[in-house]
Amino acid sequence: MHLRLGYDLFRLSAVQAHVGGSLNSVTIDKFVGQALQMYVYAAEARLQLQLRRVGLYIEGGGGVVQVSSNILDAAQITRGSHFTAAVLGGLGVDLHTLNRHFSVGLAGDYLYLAQWGGGSHAVTASTYIRYTR
After folding, report:
1. Are 130 and 102 in contact, with CB atoms under 8 Å apart?
2. What is the pLDDT, as a whole number, of residue 115?
């Protein structure tokens, strides 16, 4: 689950705060079947090209990721630190409904975790509902 709260600077650009969380399954041999939670805290910039009711956008930023389990400590991946620097990037398509406040979309995001496992990566695809005031 992710929440982004932003402010439009100009018609085509915005800044946003990004807070998210995920429940992950562990695939390390002796910990298979265990779970851990990861939380994302980031600031991002967004550029959008509006083509009538369709918006194409790209976004990127940075922040920190927190893990709430000691499983990665036991596997010597986090080495005692439950926080790591993160770089985020994404792109997507936003379809505006006939109601001026709502849109729906499809997003693809990339997450790079700098310190864990020699640099870990994640790629996600998601659908969303967006409300604008």
Report:
1. yes
2. 79
Instruction: Quote the pTM value.
Output: 0.81
Please state whether 30 falls in left (phi above 0), alpha (psi between -120 and 50) or beta: alpha
User: Angle 131-109-23 (CA atoms, 0-180°, nearest 5)?
Assistant: 90
Instruction: Select 2-131's CATH number: 3.40.50.300, 2.60.40.1180, 3.40.980.10, 2.40.160.20.
Output: 2.40.160.20
Q: Where are the beta strands (DSSP E) in 72-119?
A: 83-96, 102-113
Summarize pLDDT for 12-62 with one digit per residue, the tens: 999 999 999 988 777 777 777 777 888 999 999 999 999 999 999 999 999
Angle at 50 between CA 13 and CA 107, to 5 degrees: 75
Domain boundaries, the chain: 2-131
Q: Using the predicted structure, report yes or no on whether residue 74 has a pLDDT greater than 80.
A: no
Pairing mode, if any, of strands 35-51 and 83-96? unpaired
CA nearest to 13, candidates 44, 60, 47: 47
> Are the C-beta atoms of residues 2 and 16 closer than 8 Å to each other?
no
